[in-house]
Amino acid sequence: MNNNPTVLLVDDDHEITDLLSTYLARFNFEVLCAADGPAMRAVLAQHAVDLVVLDVMLPGADGLALAREIRDQSSLPVIMLTARTTTLDRILGLESGADDYMSKPFEPRELVARIQSVLRRSQSETARAPALEASDVVCFDGWEMRRNERTVVSPSGLVAALSNAEFRLLNTFLKTPRRLLTRDQLMEQARGRTMDAFERSIDLLVSRLRHKLLDDGAEASLIKTVRGAGYMFTAQSVQARAVWRQ
Fold first, then answer.
1. CATH for 135-241?
2. DSSP assignment of 134-169, as one string?
3. Domain segments of the chain: what residues?
4. CATH of domain 6-127
């Protein structure tokens, strides 16, 4: 059985995909190629892929739209490749759901290092998810969410109770840190039988959670608004911690 990671290269420049396919194979990657959105979808429907390397400039739908499409449907890691080099372009790429972003021209060995790094991070997050679900306490950037008590504790020790909807929303954010989540995705995760019509505005729910996290100022840091797209939970460290019981 072949356990080598499979990388999908999405780029309409066949010279680049041919060169990268040969180079990545030297590092024990299985490589698949697609030249545009329809070809990418066909490959993803037929093969198990571990990571997508996605060019921004593509015929038809551009790479940013395709990255959002991938992120809406899965947690498949994505690295963007583009000749666009401004800070805004990088931000747009990351906000579209990319895990990393490289500018052309680039060194193939650096791309290998980026792929390996993103795969390690993705595998770590996948392995950590069950522990987060089962843990009594989840720590994030100096904060604690205490599941049994349904409270959050600030770095200074201030305790705030969470409603059922706020608890589900924070739990969703903690499972997917540094990933853009649309309002529909958040509503689907945060919705419960106890939610009434008043609570169905996800923006209101985010605002209430921000207030509990002391994050509702002009420059909110933990829950970022991505204009026209949704929200991103920016915690850099999310760790499960069990409570010792005698």
1. 1.10.10.10
2. H-SEEEETTEEEETTTTEEE-TT--EEE--HHHHHH
3. 6-127, 135-241
4. 3.40.50.2300
Whether residue 148 has pLDDT greater than 60: yes
Closest CA to 36 of 72, 8, 78: 8
Helix pair angle (164-175, 202-212), 10° resolution: 80
pLDDT digits (tens, 9 = 90+) for 181-233: 888 778 766 655 444 433 457 888 899 999 999 887 666 689 988 877 788 88
Q: In what order do the strands lie in the sheet with 230-233?
A: 180-182, 230-233, 223-226
For residue 197 the two structure tokens come to 């019509």
Question: Token match 């041919």: residue?
Answer: 18
pLDDT digits (tens, 9 = 90+) for 18-66: 999 999 999 999 999 999 999 999 998 888 899 999 998 898 888 888 9
